[in-house]
Specification:
- It is a single chain.
- A hairpin with a 2-residue loop joins strand 1 and strand 2.
- The chain folds into two domains: about 220 residues, no CATH class; about 60 residues, no CATH class.
- It is mainly alpha-helical.
- The chain contains eleven helices and two strands, in the order ααααααααββααα.
- The longest helix is centred in the middle third of the chain and has 40 residues.
- A two-stranded antiparallel sheet has the order 1-2.
Length: about 280
């Protein structure tokens, strides 16, 4: 590919304000454009446009920069999107400077795309596990008692709290990765970050157990008489293994997901059918 020179202008410096604007554009456009060949690359390009317009005054150089940021792209909103938005801003700053000063282009198109490709999957996995698999359930667990008491905050708090969390954590990652440039990946490898991720993962599992134990109500209505004495199955279960029926329901759904895949709708239909049959036969 022919290298294009960002001619006849002094490259403007990208600031934290520019990076903040880029991330906010990414944050709110993230799930809007989809295509089979580029997926959500248009969201990244939309985020980067103010940065690229500031760096590249030459029309040909600007078009080339647009094309670089419009290749296939897919990642998680905050951990992936935040880091990569800041990192691309930093790398484009270096590329524009090299073009303006007619230096050897070491910040090549391949280097920038390979950086994105290498990070987007790994960071998406971390972000999905922490944000979608842990943090949002913490907000839900906090709000469930309010909802049970009839407070509207029980419904609103998880959405508002989680939305603010994602906005702030994404901005943090974008700004930090911009400061660190190509060394931004070390932010994810830092021992303190790893400890936070491990802590949140354990906390998320704990909160899921709390939710299952306290808010899944499943009891048996079976009663039988032996030698003139009445035995209530639920009372026996409560004495031997309290909460075993809710646990069995949770583990049954988990087994279904492991065996047949994460099809929530089918799992709900099967669970409903099983519970109806068990209730109709007097077991539950």
């Amino acid at each position: 590919m022919t290298e294009l020179v960002n001619k006849n202008h002094k490259v403007e410096e990208i600031t934290q304000k520019d990076v903040t604007k880029a991330y906010l554009r990414w944050h709110f456009a993230n799930e809007i454009p989809h295509s089979f060949d580029r997926y959500i690359a248009a969201s990244l390009l939309y985020a980067m446009m103010p940065v690229l317009k500031k760096l590249y005054k030459d029309e040909a150089a600007l078009k080339a920069a647009y094309q670089r940021q419009l290749l296939f792209f897919n990642t998680q909103l905050t951990w992936g999107g935040g880091v990569i938005t800041g990192l691309m801003s930093s790398m484009e700053q270096v590329r524009a400077q090299q073009e303006a000063e007619h230096e050897e282009i070491t910040m090549t198109d391949d280097l920038m795309y390979n950086t994105k490709a290498g990070l987007m999957g790994a960071l998406a996995g971390i972000g999905d596990a922490i944000d979608s698999g842990t943090v949002q359930y913490i907000f839900i667990a906090i709000a469930v008692p309010w909802a049970q008491n009839g407070s509207a905050m029980g419904a609103l708090f998880p959405f508002i709290g989680f939305a603010l969390y994602q906005l702030l954590i994404g901005l943090f990652f974008a700004r930090q990765s911009f400061k660190m440039g190509r060394d931004a990946t070390s932010l994810m490898a830092d021992s303190s970050i790893k400890k936070v991720i491990e802590f949140l993962s354990v906390l998320g599992l704990y909160m899921m157990g709390v939710l299952a134990g306290n808010y899944i109500k499943l009891t048996s209505s079976l009663v039988f008489t032996l030698s003139g004495k009445e035995f209530v199955i639920q009372d026996l279960l409560d004495k031997i293994i309290p909460g075993v029926l809710p646990l069995a329901a949770v583990m049954g759904v988990y087994w279904y997901f492991r065996k047949y895949g994460l099809d929530v709708m089918k799992a709900m239909l099967w669970l409903t059918a099983v519970l109806v049959i068990l209730a109709a036969t007097g077991i539950l």
